[in-house]
Amino acid sequence: MRFTNGYWLLREGVSLYPATQAQRVELVQDEAGRAAAKLLVATRTVEHRGQTLNSGTIELEVDSPATDVIRVRATHHRGGRLPLKFGLDACASGPVVAHANGVLSLRSGDLELRATTEGRFGIELIGHDAASGSSRTLTRQEQRGVFYADTPDGRFMNGQIALGVGEKIYGLGERFTPFIKNGQTVDVFNEDGGTASEQAYKNLPFYISSEGYGVFVNHTGRVSFEVGSETVSQVQFSVAGEHVEYIYIYGPTPKAILEKYTALTGRPKLPPAWSFGLWLSTSFVTEYDEATVTGFIQEMRRRDIPMSVFHFDCFWMREYQWCDFEWDPRVFPEPSAMLQRLKAEGLRISLWINPYIGQASPLFEEGKAGGYFIKRADGSVWQWDLWQAGNAIVDFTNPAAREWFKAKLRPLLEMGVDCFKTDFGERIPLDGVYFDGSDAEQMHNLYTQLYNETVYELLTEHSAEDAIVFARSATVGGQKMPVHWGGDNSSTFPSMAESLRGGLSLSLGGFGFWSHDIGGFEGKPDPGVFKRWVAFGALSSHSRLHGNESVRVPWAFDEEAVDVTRHFMKLKARLMPYLYAKAIEASERGIPMMRPMLLEFPEDRNCWHLDEQYMLGDSILVAPVMSADGSKQFYLPEGTWTDLQSGEKFEGGRWHERQYDFFGLPLFVRPGAVLAIGTVDDRADYEYQDHFELAAFDAAPGTEVVIHSPTGQRAGGRAPITVSWK
After folding, report:
1. 661-720, pLDDT tens digit by residue?
2. What's the CA gap between 610 and 398, in Å, rounded?
3. Which CATH number does 273-353+398-427+442-589 carry?
């Protein structure tokens, strides 16, 4: 949100009140008994007692919920309700707090906050290097570092954090705008935008700086960021109301920042091994029935294309009745028998659901009578006709509604369904009344978390090891319930690039697993776009064939598309011993499988801007081809890299350009790596410890590789083994 009219003036009707001069400093303890500090800061310079009259203050609380993490809470008026916040898993931390010579210092691990308590108030953030004994300033909050604003639209609490020379900002959720967020206005507010829009389904009030720190604004409602887009040397964040909480997280590396952020907000759950195979879906509005489904699956088998999951999109239910969670008997007359036939072929089954109940659904009156829907101020059910006629929205703040919703899904699991694709969750009203009294604006983003939690809880109750949701919308903490899919993209190369930017931005919010619609969702791709996208989709953490008005089975494009799909899905199957190890790393450390180049090579400034290539784990570089003629420019960091498919050597520290046929793309192995490559290529969930061979890429003898088992997370499952390259 913007408050100024250029550098000198304010916008009409706006008044700003910055934290200007500390009046009181108290060394206290937080709710966990850890050292903390409280400051009372006037919003004007106070030279005598008379100037304490008729002016406001900002109360600041500074503490540390975890090592290398410092939290700041800023409050103007405390009389109202505090805003909703995301739950944090606070870790043991012993910050050191001191106040002397006009400076308050709170140090947690290698991160220190210094606040000026004499003269002009300001905050400096210091990063220490324990090994060398050196330290450096990471950023500052000065002038309008913390302020509140009175505007025609109400009051806002705000912070400004300085941008250094050359400093880059990343993250803020699945954003399809430029990868580096400098110069952008970003509203953290879930909306149904698609990849061609600045709107996003998965918004996170968390960013990572190239200077070695992250900032998390702990607020569930709309958080408006001006990333060098209003005051060009500042990142500004704004929330409505009288209180804001923000958290500094020190790295100093991007990986370390993510580890500490996900320790606070949750680590990704490890998805089952079968989920890494190919998901084939009925396209959204295409006509399909049981014969269509059976035909798709038989043709995939006949053409030797490995697949793991068949997904039934929304028309498994009858139109106007989304959701009733009942199979449409006109096209699926015997669903139980059908599912058993499909599962006998080794397939898993996924069903599309959403949290909306259309008025024509048999569940509408039941939900209305039970009080299970979001209401209007007059007590009536909140409804509209967008999406389905008379849509009502399940109120997941109501425990009874959560159990009711789970009860409607449970028979589907008992029938043989393995997982659900949780669609929507971002079209949520701002004038609704919730069962628990939560503010509607602050529930808007949080709604999807409650929705996905409800479904995930049910899946975990049914089968803890196999629990997986395929979620569209998300917010902070959503990474705990994988997997998330990006949409809705168009069937073009530019949209392919948009999807990748979105996925890489999301990964910098701790989301370990991500997918997208191969070939694009909207429109029908030409065969060239589809075949290039297949390689990108196969070399993502998860792989899904799905469209809108046209099907995405490869033979719908040409015979070469069949061969390309087979080639890359078999390649992914062979890479599963390596990929599964990276999935476990994501679950244990919060480091995503698909990694922006800067995550692995933060010291190489050439990598800071790269958004058309990525690391798949720590050892494999992928650069999807996004051109009709197969040409691709790509960058390799220092060292000798090896083309995984051809064995050709390329020198790094420079850009390269090559032209690739549809079976190729820049796919390189990092110098010194040893990969465990599977000898099975027809499924994703085989026993990796029994079916692998080692491939070394200029690795030193004795380099060790850990190989996990897909049963290792189960009771009585096989433990990981360590093998050495000789």
Report:
1. 999 999 999 999 999 999 999 999 999 999 999 999 999 999 999 999 998 877 778 999
2. 44
3. 3.20.20.80
